[in-house]
Specification:
- This protein has 272 residues and is of the alpha+beta class.
- The chain has seven helices and ten strands.
- The strands form two sheets. The chain has a seven-stranded mixed sheet, with helices on one face. Strands 1-10-9 form a three-stranded antiparallel sheet.
- The longest helix has 23 residues.
- The two termini are 30 Å apart.
Length: 272
């Protein structure tokens, strides 16, 4: 009985800590859930190592997804974007709201496009701000039984480097090429704050608007396709992905699965 009360007490304390607004207390609350898991194993078996195994299982869960689904994925080497109709309101209800915020910031709509492969669908809506020489992109991804949305802002330097801010909700599933400089912003809930943070970051790096190249709205799709190809080639060279027997497709290597696992752990620690 004392053991059950102790476990319930740790869980209650952890829940309370998770409701507080400070990062430290939230992480302490997450650690409390791990402690409660340990106590369940320990009091149920009387053995410390059983409790440790139960805690370790929390960190092994990502491997179930990696081995059962990710390892079997086959994706195209070349992703050709084509005109695509926007997802319906039931699939992507936030599209009009995000579009309104971006256009209110002075961006001009360019094009709706996307690509599909097996159970993966990606929809892109591109915008451009000529005065700021900046591209904005809405990306909506559907895979199997889940979907997610991200917004990105990009500027291109004359030397070929691309400086990009994104609110992708998890770490990138592939390495970025050396010429892509990434910044994540998960704290800005309004687009006006999102672009302000991007511009402050670029300014802190020592760049002004004049350092970046003008983009032709007609060329944005071609540039995105080129960046996708560069990323795939970079990850092939890094051993993260490997070519498949089936022509023009790739899969994650075991090294790539390890990379994805640690990316998942980073996200787990960040969101704790």
């Amino acid at each position: 009985m004392n053991g059950i009360l102790l476990i319930l007490g740790v869980i209650a304390l952890s829940l309370a800590l998770r409701t507080l607004p400070w990062t430290f207390t939230r992480k302490l609350g997450a650690a409390g859930f791990l402690a409660a898991s340990f106590l369940v194993g320990y009091f149920a078996s009387g053995k410390i190592w059983i409790g440790a195994v139960i805690v370790a299982m929390w960190f092994l869960f990502p491997w179930i997804e990696l081995i059962t689904r990710t390892r079997k994925m086959r994706l195209p080497v070349k992703r050709s974007l084509s005109r695509k109709s926007p997802p319906g309101a039931q699939r992507f209800p936030e599209l009009n709201t995000i579009t309104g915020e971006i256009e209110a910031a002075g961006f001009v709509y360019v094009k709706d496009t996307g690509w599909s492969w097996n159970d993966t669908n990606q929809f892109f809506r591109f915008f451009y701000h000529a005065e700021k020489r900046t591209q904005a992109t809405i990306c909506f991804t559907e895979q199997s039984f889940y979907s997610y949305t991200s917004v990105s802002i990009s500027v291109r330097h004359g030397d070929g480097r691309v400086f990009r801010t994104s609110n992708l909700p998890f770490s990138s599933p592939m390495k970025s090429p050396p010429n892509i400089v990434q910044r994540r912003d998960l704290d800005s809930f309004l687009f006006v704050d999102f672009i302000e943070g991007h511009e402050m970051w670029v300014e802190a790096l020592g760049f002004t608007t004049e350092d970046f190249t003008h983009q032709s709205p007609e060329d944005i799709v071609t540039q995105v396709e080129s960046e996708s190809g560069s990323q795939i080639n970079h990850n092939l060279e890094s051993g993260i992905i490997a070519l498949c027997e089936k022509a023009e497709t790739w899969r994650y290597s075991w090294r790539g699965l390890v990379y994805l696992y640690f990316q998942a752990l980073k996200d787990f620690m960040r969101w704790c």
